[in-house]
Amino acid sequence: MKKTAKVISKKITPEAELRSYIARFDPRIQKLAKSVRTAVRKRFPTANELVYDYGRSLVIGYSPSEHGIESIVSTATRADGVAFYFNNGPRLPDPKGLLLGTGKATRFVQLESARQVSHPDTEAFIAAAIELSKVPLPKSGKGGVIIKSAADKKKSATKARKR
Predict the structure, then answer these.
(1) Do 78 and 57 form a contact (C-beta atoms < 8 A)?
(2) How far is CA 95 from CA 91, 92, 121, 137, in A?
(3) Nearest to 36 by CA among 73, 68, 9, 65
(4) Beta bridge mates, 106
(5) How far is CA 83 from CA 8, 32, 110, 153, in A?
(6) CB neighbour burial string for 25-42, b if at least 16 within 10 angstroms, e if fewer
(7) What pTM, to 2 d.p., does this model score?
(8) Is the four-CA dihedral 106, 69, 144, 77 of positive or negative sign?
(9) Is the CB of residue 10 less than 8 Å from the CB of residue 104?
């Protein structure tokens, strides 16, 4: 009787992969990234977390779909901290001049703590970003973690430029 070896494939879950990306950062940044993620997830329970690993930065978009372009907000974790981005940033009301950046599509605030996610000024930006979103968030359910490659994002950007 011939024995065949069983090949056991341990496929890493998207959640475990995301945690491994966060673990690359300094412990202080890890703690901030995890607490911000918890706060944003609480605010957007039905959104998908679209994860892009760029080596030096980790971007998580919160989207009603599987498409990064439809993300309403996103976080960017880097060695120097965590930024909270708002799509349609240039169109958001910002009477206090709190939003940073000059991009065509986004603006951001630098986060010192997760509590800033629920601050009234940040909440006003979130509400305005949701209002300007072309794709509504699902009313119920729970969004998942979707690992996207940096190449996926570059392909999307290239397709958008070619149109």
Answers:
(1) yes
(2) 12, 9, 10, 26
(3) 73
(4) 87
(5) 39, 11, 4, 19
(6) beeebeebbbbbbebbbe
(7) 0.86
(8) negative
(9) no
| pLDDT value, residue 163 | 46
User: Which pLDDT tens digits describe the chain residue by residue (163 residues)?
Assistant: 555 555 555 688 999 999 999 999 999 999 999 999 999 999 999 999 999 999 999 999 999 999 999 999 999 999 999 999 999 999 999 999 999 999 999 999 999 999 999 999 999 999 999 999 999 999 999 999 999 976 554 544 444 444 4
The sheet carrying 81-87 orders its strands as 106-111, 81-87, 73-78, 57-63, 48-53, 145-148
- The residues that bridge with 60 in the sheet, in sequence order, are 51, 75
* Dist. CA 66–CA 7, nearest whole Å: 32
